[in-house]
Amino acid sequence: MLRRAFIAATLLSLLAACGFQLRGAQTLPFGNIYLAMNQYEDFTAALKRAIESTGNAHVVSKAEEADAILQLVANDKEKHILSLNSSGSVREYQLRQRFAYRVVDRKGLELAPYSEIYVYRDVSFSEGLELAKAQEDSLLYADMQNDVLQQLLRRLSRVHPK
Asked: What is the pTM of this model?
């Protein structure tokens, strides 16, 4: 019993000594941000919620009020065929999302240069299950959107206002 406690304490101290820590909430280096993108898309609403949940930044409705402006360059989704079976039907495909953006201040000075976030998922395809695969695609796109949001917040937290 004493030996198990000693081993557990040793492992915990080694884990703490290696610098491991859970990824916490991102804090953004600016107080107000304007999202220069379609305000009625699901992605924009999810991004607003994610930014507001940081606690230190707020999404404003006018660019003149913002410390930073997130400019959407592209948010493309596509389906790419990976392989075909012997009869020429699709066997595997890949869902891709590319999110391109840049961050400027209200004067137009660049805070973060043009950047892109790529996410993708490989999917197998079975004939006769088209409806189920369509639902799977929509779930995968939602997961990919969440992945893009998390990566974007991490990148925005590293922006240094001038």
From this structure: 0.78
